[in-house]
Amino acid sequence: MGEKPEPQEIGPYEDHGAEKAFVGPASDHLEKRYSLLSVIAFAFTTTNSWVAFASGIAVPLACGGSPGIIYGLIVAGIVIGTIALGFAELASAFPSAGGQYHIVFMVFPSSMRRVAAFFTGWLSIIYIMAALVSCNIFVASSILDLVALWNETFEIHAWQTYLLHVALCLVAFFVTSRFPSAIGRLGIAIFFLSLAGFVASLITILVVHKDKQSGDVVFRDYENTSGWSDGWGMIIGITACLWAFSGVDGPTHLAEEVPNPSRNVPIAIGLAIGLGFITVLVWIIALMFVVSDVDAIINSPVPILEVYNQALGSKVATTIWTVYYMVMFYEIVLNLFIFGGRTIWSLSRDGGLPYSQFFSRLQWNSPVRGIALMLVLEVIVGILYIVSSAAYSSFINLTLFALNITVALPQAALLFRGRASLPERAFSLGKYGFAVNLVATLFVIFFSITFCFPTFMPVTASSMNYLVVVMAIAIIVPLGLWFGGLNKSFTGPQDIIEV
Question: Which residues fall within 8 angstroms of residue 162, CB to CB, at 6 or more apart?
Fold first, then answer.
């Protein structure tokens, strides 16, 4: 595998009056194909809080009813907003398609940066895998649930959902690898469609549904059926509400394909979280006024389908809105294939994958082989859905768990190394930076622990949270790769050039 490279001290960028970005080997880098609006659209449609949270409202509802989910979202928005603020500054300082992987390498001490960056890169790949299979299985499940809605004799089997998952992944691989620029334009259209759907959904729910809950029920009737005490139930509910803001790192993986990434990437991150917070909070409050059977929503395999059934009482209306949600979620799938392919490519160009030279080559100015590897991983991991629902759910829980760790890790490093190590950047937190990095780190530590708690008590074999076990198994892969020889070939990001 060659001699082990000596760790290189890569300090802050020098200011030569030109924008800096990491683009890997000068002979093989991505073209500037995305505008600021495209990156904002990527960021918003990946997070798409009011849409994405529709698949995860069952747990916070069980942990506190309407007040639990409303106030849980407010607290979760503050938590993720703080984490995102600190991460946006780092993304401004070190723009790269590697995202967290590249940032960790740049802020860690030279003695630790190679191993820290390597495991951060693989943790990012694992997180994207989990997020992608979650969204795609949701789309596949929704298709089959629509069939069951119109055909009561139709019986849904896990293998049918899996095959649909594979088919949807094949389509996503083709369009994202061959037409990445078109995905950017599609994202803009979906961005405005999401905002239009948000307004239309509010009107539909509040106008069509006549028997609304009272304000006291919505804002004050705290009903905890999770089995936890009220205090712990609220914490578990807040932890579940964090899912509304997943995907904060998305724009960073496009940094090499957008002009002025030091400015534009933080803008995209901020707008995605800000718009996401406003839309999901308003939508949930409106929804709580029309929900009549909380238990039915908690027990539904597709909670949003049950919500619209209760709110609208019409198969046709429910079908229309379910199709709309499938379009929104499939856009997230496309985005994650884009992000995943670029993360794999970024890691491979630094020797972080077996056969790195193969995966580091571009086709059509796109990391097609990296996207193809993500496709293979999705076909494999989707089997969990058939084998064990508990194992599948625990793997999905890796999404936000691993993401938060990767975006908080470089912020924690700054607390020890000092913020003076940061280069000049378009977005700076200035004197508030240390406090933001500290609070973000503490938030991630606390909620990483609560993510490991079971959501319902008493615990059964099916309701047990196996996140720690799944995380340990997931870490075995990069651990084996590292000691299997990649510790000798992996260099970490080496080339910083002007663009």
Answer: 140, 382, 383, 385, 386
Is the confidence at residue 12, as pLDDT, over 70?
no
Per-residue pLDDT tens for 18-46?
Answer: 344 444 443 367 888 999 999 999 999 99
How far, in Å, CA of 122 to CA of 471, rounded? 12
Under a CB-based contact definition with an 8 Å cutoff, are residues 23 and 30 in contact?
Answer: yes
pLDDT given at position 311:
67
What is the Cα gyration radius of the chain? 22
Q: Within a 13 Å sphere around the CA of 88, how many CA atoms are in the beta-carbon half?
A: 26
Q: Whole-structure pTM over 0.85, yes or no? A: yes
Q: Which amino acid is at 294?
A: V
Report the SS3 class of residue 390.
Answer: helix
Name beta bridge partners: 366. Answer: 363
Domains of the chain by residue range: 20-498
Q: Residue 130's closest CA among 463, 356, 325, 391? A: 391
Confidence check: pLDDT of 291 > 80: no
Contacts of 464 (CB under 8 A, 6+ apart): 390, 454
The pLDDT score that the predictor gives to residue 208 is 66
Please say whether the beta carbons of 124 and 99 come within 8 A. yes
Q: Are 77 and 277 in contact (CB under 8 A)?
A: yes
The CATH classification of domain 20-498, taken from the options 1.25.40.10, 2.40.10.10, 1.20.1740.10, 3.90.550.10: 1.20.1740.10
- Predicted confidence at residue 194, as pLDDT, reads 94
Q: Are 399 and 134 in contact (CB under 8 A)?
A: yes
Tokens representing 237 are 């509910």
Kindly list the distances between the CA atom of residue 169 and the CA atoms of 141, 166, 177, 374, 414, in Å, as whole numbers in the listed order. 14, 5, 12, 9, 38
For Cα atoms 290, 296, 297, give the angle at the middle one, nearest 5 degrees: 65
List, in sequence order, every residue forming a beta bridge with 498; answer none if it has no partner: 20
Question: 285, 319, 397: which is closest to 50 by C-alpha?
Answer: 285
Strand 20-22 versus strand 496-498 pairing type: antiparallel
Phi/psi of residue 249, nearest 5 degrees: -85, -10
* Averaged pLDDT, 288-304: 73
User: 71: closest CA among 246, 221, 225, 205?
Assistant: 221
Burial label for 236, CB within 10 Å (0-12, 13-18, 19+), is buried
Phi and psi at residue 22, to the nearest 5°: -85, 120
Is residue 359 within 8 A of residue 369, CB to CB? The reply is yes
